[in-house]
Amino acid sequence: MTVKVLQQKSEIKDARHELRRRGVSYLTANRLISLIYNRLGLKRIIPVGHISKSWDVLATADFVQAHLPVTAPILDIGAFASEIICVLHRLKYTNLTGIDLNPNVVRMPYAGKIRYKAADFMHTHFADGAFAAITAISVIEHGIQRSALLKEITRLLRPGGYFIASFDYWPDKINTSGSNMFGMDWCIFSREEVLALLDEAKGYGLSPCGPVKLEVTEPMIEFAGKSYTFAWLVLQKHA
User: Fold this and answer.
1) Strand, coil or helix: what is 57?
2) How many structural domains are present in the chain?
């Protein structure tokens, strides 16, 4: 399945258990302590990952492992505090790059082995066709200009490459006007908006490489007064 939706909270718990079983889970041990240390200026710790993102992190890791060799060049966009790039490193992927607007991205874990860059991932200076895959965990719902993103994604991917993303989702439109996260607008994608994204992506040579399943009956996530769930998709660039 190439577009799927988180259906049960147990899927989050089960996914984290599996990440830990494989020895690739990378959550900051105690986010509260890290935040206190940061505020006191004792030690700057980046609180990587979040337990609620277990399901999409595992889905992304599984897809990458099933489709790409460990030498494949992979770009993670929105890499600041992103767990997936650390998980891929622990899975022995050796050609990883992370990019984020936050200048502290260069202080992320494994900075000696992962290339981190502070920059706008909708307007990068990487070469055409530089990557076999691009990952984005909970990124595209925050202040993204859809056409600019798709244009840059298709430029950066080599033919046959994959764009793997997760995002906030609910079938009916949820009003998030006035909500702000990370200094950007927040969008909970509706079914119509996901379908519009997929339709526009075709114009950039990107298409789902499997079934699209967007049905869900109950919200799994409660945040900022909104009830919704997560969706996950994979787009492949036409060869």
Assistant:
1) helix
2) 1
**CA 239, CA 236: separation in Å to the nearest integer?**
9
Report residue 198 as tokens.
């997929």
- Which residues, 6+ apart, have CB-to-CB distance to 170 below 8 Å? 188, 189, 190, 216, 219, 227, 228, 229
CB 9, CB 237: distance < 8 Å = no
What contacts 24+ positions apart, CB below 8 Å, involve 24-29?
24/61, 24/87, 24/90, 24/91, 25/87, 26/83, 26/86, 26/87, 26/90, 26/109, 27/51, 27/83
Residues 189-214 pLDDT 10s? 999 999 999 999 999 999 998 899 99
CATH label of the domain that carries residue 7:
3.40.50.150
What is the DSSP annotation of 106-152? Answer: GGSTTTTTSEEEES-TTS--PPTT-EEEEEEES-TTBS--HHHHHHH
Structural domain harbouring 20 = 3-237
Q: Would you say how long the chain is, in residues?
A: 239
Cβ atoms of residues 59 and 88 within 8 Å: no
| Residue whose C-alpha is closest to residue 161's, from 238, 70, 60 | 238
How many whole angstroms separate alpha carbon 197 and alpha carbon 208? Answer: 11
Cα-based angle 11, 28, 133 (whole degrees, multiple of 5): 65
CA distance 76 to 97: 6
The tokens of 68 are what?
């790409």
134-173 pLDDT tens trace: 999 999 998 878 899 999 999 999 999 999 999 999 999 9
Classify strands 74-77 and 3-5 as parallel, antiparallel or unpaired: unpaired
Element (H, E) at 113: none
